[in-house]
């Protein structure tokens, strides 16, 4: 990119990025106040940033001047944060969990895909919409929906409705999942597995697990990454098994377009795995861990503020009750299957 182009891009990003940083600063101040008053942050800055972003978005819709920086914060900064987190995680933790957990993750994704698709069809939703909801629910929310849509020839309305609900329910899962800890009596490791299996987006796993423990964060992130890596096989499978969907009348022109490797496996996941591998091999010095972890944490809060600014709770009133029921029921099935897996494996 030429220097003048980079300069224009930086100027365009600045307003929205500044807004996200301001929300992050306010959230951090609230957390600091909690720590001074009760010596423990019952609501972390990550969650406060999401709620603050949603509150702002509910009363004010950012214009074009702000959207570029908000989108940059929600995507690029979020991806960098996830990649940097890899430096603090050893892959030996996942390997030590044994093949049972790895097999359980695959089974959970497959069961969630089948159940979610079946629920959508039973409720009378079109096949494309049912597939989008199933993939978003079982794998990684908006990223899965965006990757699957061109393969099956989904319409813009289908994609918008699916993404709207995964955005809203994704935030609700982040906020509500920690409430299950006392109800289920989960250990930090069990909760990490549960979060990794149920939370939609990789960075949202951080929001759901950081307030609990470092162990929960590490385990949850690794489990979630295994889930995300299944996006590649699922998309490839759909491209082979659903040609009729792509050829139906009304399918967009790009439906037959081949997806590149980095569309199936995002660069930040490769970066996460590379840093995790380097950490496992002792190539990341201990002195670098604290700065990397701190940077990842700050970027994650900024990204969470941006995600909150992108959630419009009023979209619920503009979509059908069947979509609402399908997405909610699919999430309930995923949660139940995940709890059964955690209990069945006897993870401690």
- The averaged pLDDT comes out at 81
Helix-strand sequence: HHHHHHHHHHHHHHHHHH
Number of helices: 18
Structural class: mainly alpha
The fraction of residues assigned to DSSP E strands is under 5%
Percent range for helical residues?
A: over 70%
Which parts are unreliable, with pLDDT below 50 for 5 consecutive residues or more? 249-256
Largest sheet: none
Number of strands: 0
User: For the terminal residues, how far apart are their CA atoms?
Assistant: 49 Å
Radius of gyration: 20 Å
Please state the overall shape, judged from the principal axes of the Cα atoms.
globular
Q: How would you summarize what this structure contains?
A:
This protein is mainly alpha-helical and 348 residues long.
Description:
With 348 residues, the chain is mainly α. It has 18 helices and no strands. Helix 7 runs antiparallel to helix 8. The longest helix has 36 residues, at 3-38. The radius of gyration is 20 Å and the shape is globular.
Write the layout of secondary structure elements.
Elements lengths: L2 H36 L6 H15 L4 H22 L6 H5 L2 H24 L4 H14 L1 H11 L3 H21 L3 H5 L3 H11 L3 H8 L4 H16 L1 H11 L1 H5 L13 H4 L2 H14 L5 H24 L11 H25 L3
Helix pairs in contact: 1-2, 1-3, 1-17, 2-17, 3-16, 3-17, 5-6, 5-18, 6-7, 6-8, 6-18, 7-8, 7-13, 8-11, 8-18, 10-11, 10-12, 10-18, 11-12, 11-17
